[in-house]
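== Sequence, structure tokens ==
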Amino acid sequence: MSYENVKKFFDQASLGDRVVVREHIGDTVEHAAEAIECKPEHIVKTMSFFLDGNPALICMAGDAKVNNTKYKACFHQKAVMIPREQVEKLIGHVPGAVCPFAIREGVKVYLDVSLKRFSTVYTAGGSVNSTVKLTLEELEKFSAPECWVDVCKGWFVNGD
């Protein structure tokens, strides 16, 4: 049902053709990038956390990893990921298919600055074999984030 909700979400915005079902995506950012034929960093990883006891999503570039020190400085609490078996119930998508669209009411979304390097990115599309190609501006518009955050490490601007 998750894929159908994402497809409907983008159909309503006249962007339904951006939600693409693929034969196989894979179980890692690298496999997804290979299937889509893009660089791994252009894949949006959407991670599920408890923030103040409530579910929240942080979208980051495929080459970024959450930095616990930066996370704590930003949110004033330790990073606690939602257990895999609770993700679908709390977010509305199964692990591996989580995206910031067509999610459960009340789930807050944050975009990490690691994404700002790109004009185009790919998110999951609500199923483990679907993707959505978006400009950074579209990602920001349709994910309706609380704000941009800087909670990741491992990515570099211009090779820095």
Summary: The longest helix spans residues 2-11. The chain has a mean pLDDT of 93.
